[in-house]
Amino acid sequence: MKMMSRKSALTALSRGLFMVFALTMLFSAPELQAAATGKTGVVDVSKIIKQMPETQKAENILKSTTTQWGKSLEQMQKDFQSGVAAYEKGKASMNQATKTQKENELKTKLQAAQKYEQEKFGRGGALEKKQEELMAPIRQKVLAAIKAVAQKEGFSLILEKQAMVFGDSSLDLTIKVIDQLNKK
């Protein structure tokens, strides 16, 4: 009796999976066909972004910010190192309470430098956020230009050029997108 119920459950499950597969194919077939019959183009987004004057401005701002934060971090590290040197030089003449106090001060300086480095340069830090803040409008502008060229030229799908394994060079819309950006 248990064997029959397992077989019927398996049969019902396989029928259900078949129906899900059939419905998926039925509803996705028109989209697949539309993509297959539409024109497909490619663009080299990194090349486009590199040629934009806004990118150079953003890179200069990032470089300046990085330099400023780097100098601050370097100063914090020098302060820590000089504190360690002074501690090592004078620890022989210090009593235990003074040693403990100086060690805690050094530990605090080291932790502050590490925290600063993480906050500014670490993953999700201020530098990463600044880069995203500066690059987001540039990417949006490029995307708008790609969309305008695609619509004007009758392309239904545009891919990143690096994703293309093989294709006709006439599908490359990079120069047309750059020209579109220069018009604005």
Q: Given the C-alpha coordinates, what overall shape results?
A: rod-shaped
CATH topology description of the largest domain: Protein Binding, DinI Protein, Chain A
Q: In the CATH hierarchy, what is the architecture of the largest domain at level 2? A: 2-Layer Sandwich
Overall helicity: over 70%
Largest sheet: 2 strands, parallel
Calculate the mean pLDDT score and round it: 81
Strand-residue proportion:
5-15%
Q: What would you call the structural class? A: mainly alpha
- The total strand number stands at 2
By DSSP (H or I, 4+ residues per run), the number of helices equals: 6
* CATH superfamily (homologous) name of the largest domain: Skp domain
SSE run: HEHHHHEH
The N- and C-terminal alpha carbons lie at a distance of: 76 Å
- Rg (CA only): 31 Å
